[in-house]
Structure formats: structure tokens, C-alpha cells
Amino acid sequence: MECAERRATYRTVACSRPTTRMTRMTRMTRMTRMTRMTRMTRWTRTRWEHTFDLWDSLKIVGIIAPVQGNLFAVGPVGPRPAVAFERTDLGRGAWVDVARGWFGGADDLMVRLQTGVGWQHHRRWMYERMVDEPRLSRWFAADEALPEEGLAAFRTGVGRRYHHRFGAMALNFYRDGRDSVAPHTDRELRHVDDTIVAILTLGAERPFLLRPVGGGRSIDLRPASGDLLVMGGTCQETWEHAVPKVPRGAGARISASVRWARRGGFERQWAPAGREPSDAGPADDRR
């Protein structure tokens, strides 16, 4: 009887041992996996931190600014004629067209223009005194060579779309969120009852506000890199546009603009009234 009980007890213990071994093996496997995952997570985080440190070290303050681009702004540089245009009727003969992702290779063009253009800092009479404009600019006459072929392709593409010839071009460089342009109309066109102002955005997405002259509710078109924005009809007579300041962290943005007026045609010189070169130069001395 005792021998039978001993044999039964032995069988029970013997059968339970594989279960215990399997439990231990499962625990060890889980611990090993968790250890490996933790090591991989730490390694990945370290690699990303090194990448961001390297990117920060490559920035040149005031010359090369970080670009917050658009996934649709890559590819060959130039217009994409197949992109759809969305028109908004603003009333009283004013309208605005927006074509998202109309210009390919916008981010690459943006990077080259940052260092390939002789940027200038201008001043203007405002608030009963001369003030520095919070952005950099460069204006090109109709017969002047442009710094990049992509800019010529932009001018030609807009001309084909609207069946008008465009000439002089303006580039504005908003280095970060501190750069801006106050609400205004392009009245230097003189005859603003029927005009076309085409603006191509390169780089970071920023607010672009339209509001009725004299005040009213604003419309934020917010173009991203490669987007084309076209104001037409009586828009320069009845609506103001602006690029307001935004909190820190905004990337760099360059806008390229061409204009046309029915009673004047294309511009041969881009010469905004009341501007003069600033003594500050293009250096980043903002506070």
C-alpha cells in the first residue's frame, strides 16, 4: 500500500515538473523580449536625438532657416497643370482662386532661394515715422534674369492659366514667425478695378488672411508649400490681405508674386511706393 502511494506521488510530481519548467521558460522568454524591446527603444530614441542635434548644428541663423514643407511639394520643379483650381466669389466683382499642390519641387526651390538670392531689407513710412519692414525682399524687373528657372516656370504657368502676360516679380522671405506683412491692398497698380495678383508659396504653411476693406470677418486661406493663390477682379479694391505674425517655431516661407492690371497690363518694374533700403541690411537683428 505504501509503495503504491509512493508511486502515485512520484507520478504527480513527475507530471508537474514539465509544467513548472514550461512556466519558467515562458517567464524567461517574456523577460528577454521585454529587455530587447527596451534596448531597441533606447537605441532608436538615441539615434533620433543625435539626428536632431546634427540638424540643429547645421542651421545658420539668419541665412538658412528650417523648412516645414508639404508632402505634395516634392518632385520635379514646375507647375502641375492638372491640379484643380477652387474659386471663391468674394462679392462685388472680387474673387480668389486656390490651387493646392500646383507647383512641384517647391521645397527644393525654397532651400536654394534662401542662399541664392541677394535679399534686401527695406524701410517704409508708417505710423508717422520710417520703420523697418519685418521681412526680406528682392524685386526683379520684367527683363531681369531670375535666380532660378523654377520662378520663370511659375510666371509662364500663371500666364497660360489666365491668358495674360506677367512681367516683374517680387520675392518676400519670411524667416520665421516674427516676420509678417500688415493688412494692405496692392494699390501701386493704380487701376485696381480689374487686376490679377498671383502668389506662389514655398516652404512653411502660414496664415494668409483676406478681409474686407474697412473691417469685417477675415478668411484664412493658409497656403502650404507649392500652393498657388490668385486674387482677381476687384479684390485689390475691396479686400485687404496680410501674413500675420505667429508664435515661435514657425518655419521659413518665401512667396513669389506677379501682377497684372487691365488698364496697364503687366508690370515692367516692381516698385512699391515709399520703400527705401534699410541701414540694417539683411542680417537677423530682430528682438
Walk me through this protein's architecture.
With 287 residues, the chain is α+β, with helices and mostly antiparallel strands. The protein is built from 4 helices and 17 strands. Strands 2, 3, 7, 8, 10, 13, 15 and 16 form an 8-stranded antiparallel beta sheet that branches. The chain has a 4-stranded antiparallel beta sheet with strand order 9-14-11-12. A hairpin with a 2-residue loop joins β5 (122-126) and β6. It is globular.
TL;DR of this structure?
The chain is α+β, with helices and mostly antiparallel strands and 287 residues long. The protein has helices at 2-58, 106-116, 149-162, 235-238, and strands at residues 78-79, 86-91, 94-99, 103-104, 122-126, 129-132, 136-140, 169-174, 181-184, 195-203, 209-212, 219-220, 228-233, 239-243, 253-261, 265-266, 275-277. The relative contact order is 0.18.
